[in-house]
Amino acid sequence: MRHVLLAxxxxxxxxxxxxxxAGPDVPGWMAGCWEDEREDQRVVECWTVPEGxxxxxxxxxxxxxxxxxxxxxxxxxxxxxxxxxxxxxAMWVSPNGxxxxxxxxxxxxxxxxTFIFAANDYPQEIRYWxxxxxxxxxxxxxxxxxxxxxxxxxxxxSD
Length: 159
Prior knowledge:
Order of helices and strands: HEEEEEEEEEE
Structural class: mainly beta
Low-confidence stretches: 1-21
Helix content: under 10%
CATH architecture: Beta Barrel
Number of helices: 1
Radius of gyration: 15 Å
Largest sheet: 10 strands, antiparallel, barrel
Shape: globular
CATH class: Mainly Beta
């Protein structure tokens, strides 16, 4: 299985499973375009306004003026996948258009939203959280190793 780099999302609708496992609300605060700019690369991540039980997202990593990675993302509430049980929230990611992988929302003591896909080689965990005016994102293995983190500023905002 290919490496899945980055993605996110949320929601909840009344269903027997949802009644047993309360999930988060769709993260409207994520809507818009965000960027993490570093000396050697720029990462842009954009999310639609949550509507119809989902958010759509995209991510692009640019180095030396060239796209080196891109990803299509989707956050769905009350997701019912034929390959797994219905869950209150799921994040689907398609790295470089290669496959479509489901990360399931899990309750966490950490701030924000945490999604896991334990069978993936890397990452196995994706987490998003709000930090004031910033959006933070992190990927890692489930044991906390191989952490990569992005600190996004809303595009068009000043420092």
